[in-house]
Amino acid sequence: MKECAEVKKRDRHSTKELSKIAPLYDTHDFWDSQPVPKETDTVTAADFDKQIDEVKTIDDIRAEPLDIPDGFHWSVVNIENDDECKEVYDLLT
Fold it and tell me: What is the pTM of this model?
């Protein structure tokens, strides 16, 4: 009887531990769409110096920005303006 209680206690502990790490293996919609290595990728030292995308000329880049969802707007940031730089910094931190 005591042995059975020990097994149940150990199983509950194992389940609790698994529930802590399970979110680490969930899908990540944002990161899965980015040009960064995935958890399952093998990365070598040579991979760190590779281009993310092919080289483009000015003619390859569209003149008009892509459409973005309602409620958002494109913003041109003057990086020489301290106030605008701080806004970007605050947004990203």
Answer: 0.32
